[in-house]
């Protein structure tokens, strides 16, 4: 009896060691793939910022701002967010120092939340299975449409039209980073990404083992099934929507290696995450500069579901060959 208990305990210890090694191996493999994307893109973006080339992108976007009820200068803000990240967009907005109404800042925040950090996120999307060009057009065009629709909704309902924004004091303009501080900041980001991915891989594996993933599938399956997203990618889609496209895309890269996910399901999941991701953290950032939750959260989610419904209905009739031509990486 004693020997049986001892043997059982040793087996459990060995199984745990195997599981932990598997977690660590997956996290390293997935992180390296993400880092290979992030490093060169981050350097290119830094050069664009240092040389001022982003200004030209902003000038090109200025005419589009008027159709969303925004000043032309906000084109530079959106360009900074798309080429850099949300923080770069916020800092650019604060640097310009232009007063906007609550309606205007909510529209601006919504299009930024749909299209930001594009060089890195599009590269991850490409690695996960969808063409970067297709994802860029998808995010930019529907970001623009979302801004126009939200502008007309607020205008029709006369919401926040003449109410100036009050920026939260926690949002501060940072000093221009030197190359040294930038490198240090990037290294911290990589360490954070590695820890985050490791944690997500562990959590997902544990949730799979105890049956929680299956429950999540059952909760979200009816809604996401209407959008053409199968249950095999629902947990990753939920993670991407709540935590961010980089993490959701990274996990898809890992899952594609571990299992045989259908390309069409991966495509639909990534497109949905492209329009609505990091819906909690990023929304809080925008609330800090005066945006309203009605636009940056509720409208964005509803808009995403409507867009995905029609996108899936149209492309479901397409052959795999046609999908590969336009969307599959």
Description of the structure:
The protein is mainly alpha-helical and 329 residues long. The protein has one domain (11-326). The chain is 78% helix and 0% strand. It has helices at residues 2-51, 54-65, 74-83, 86-96, 102-114, 118-128, 132-157, 179-210, 212-226, 234-243, 245-258, 263-275, 281-288, 293-315, 320-326. Helix 3 runs antiparallel to helix 4, helix 6 (118-128) runs parallel beside helix 11 (245-258) and helix 10 runs parallel beside helix 12. It is globular, with a radius of gyration of 22 Å. It starts with a helix and ends with a helix. The model is unreliable at 169-175 (pLDDT under 50).
Distance between the termini: 57 Å
How much of the sequence lies in strands comes to under 5%
Tally of extended strands?
Answer: 0
Q: What is the global morphology? A: globular
Q: How do you describe this structure in short?
A:
Helix 1 packs across helix 6, helix 1 packs antiparallel against helix 8 and helix 10 packs antiparallel against helix 11. The chain has 15 helices and no strands.
Sequence-ordered SSE layout with sheet pairings:
Layout: H1 2-51, H2 54-65, H3 74-83, H4 86-96, H5 102-114, H6 118-128, H7 132-157, H8 179-210, H9 212-226, H10 234-243, H11 245-258, H12 263-275, H13 281-288, H14 293-315, H15 320-326
Helix pairs in contact: 1-6, 1-8, 1-11, 2-3, 3-4, 5-7, 5-14, 6-7, 6-11, 10-11, 10-12, 11-12, 12-14
Protein traits:
globular; 329 residues; 15 helices; mainly alpha
